[in-house]
């Protein structure tokens, strides 16, 4: 049917006007639906960023040879890495330590098992490849104590490894998003060899420390207060100097601690492993990686940074204050950054930018194939040498100690 645009007198026909109005109403409804869908998607994305997440499977177990004590995994940029790693799955052996790559092809990687797996073991095929390696403090075979840090929200558990000759220098270790303090154990033997005391801490909403009302992260904007409470614990228990070390989101947290602490005179330096330095860069990268529309990403960041986020985080997340490149002029302490340019989760752009902005304080050691928070696993010798050399150059350790 053809709708006449003009009536006999030359004016638009009522049928034509009705058709136009109907088309406008349809387009309006479609646009409203699209905007609503984008809005919902952005809120979902925003909530996902700040919600502590369970470990997400990222590989599959293709074969388990208990006679040879080997395991074959689907090939990914992580599972093909040389070095020592961990594997989380479910079944009778939920955590396995993995050794070197024994064989590989286009779709699979066979690795040596460093955890003995019995013939009767049953494992889920879905697994998560990890850089953790140590499952708990007892595996380090170093003396330690379970202690409690008093935070504003309540007691937060921590592991204390007493130091030796330089026990009054403490290293406060802070884990990343979606993990626990066990992530930090890889660094403890290095600092123990230097005679330093290590305090491996928890913080709000990480499943070990007290939970806030919403149970969500603020990406470092409030978590730093729990780390500052740990600095206060160190001070009252004999620390004369404190090195803050943060992994991934833990890097964002310790940077905020260094900038906001009540005890700036106690902080001797900051060590960052695969750190988040500007959240907007990380969130944009993750959105592109997951093929989210740019509009969704922008709205999600906007929602988290505004009062819209109140139902999720009980307050806007101050992305400007979390952008340490923009705040580089406020840094007072030496910073060592260890970051891989092929991180795959937290791009190293902001690490390079911070090193360029404050070459007087910030030293960047770049890796190229180590992926995210797996630098120790990939090249333990270089990782350890980088930290020891930095400690020597900054005067935190004496030359003889740093070479030990």
UniProtKB/TrEMBL annotation:
PANTHER family: ALPHA/BETA HYDROLASE DOMAIN-CONTAINING PROTEIN, XAA-PRO DIPEPTIDYL-PEPTIDASE-RELATED. The keyword Hydrolase applies. Residues 170-285 form the AB hydrolase-1 domain. This is Alpha/beta hydrolase family protein. It comes from the Bacteria. Keywords: Hydrolase. SUPFAM superfamilies: alpha/beta-Hydrolases. It holds the Pfam family Abhydrolase_1. Its EC number is 3.4.-.-. GO terms for molecular function: hydrolase activity. Gene3D superfamilies: alpha/beta hydrolase.
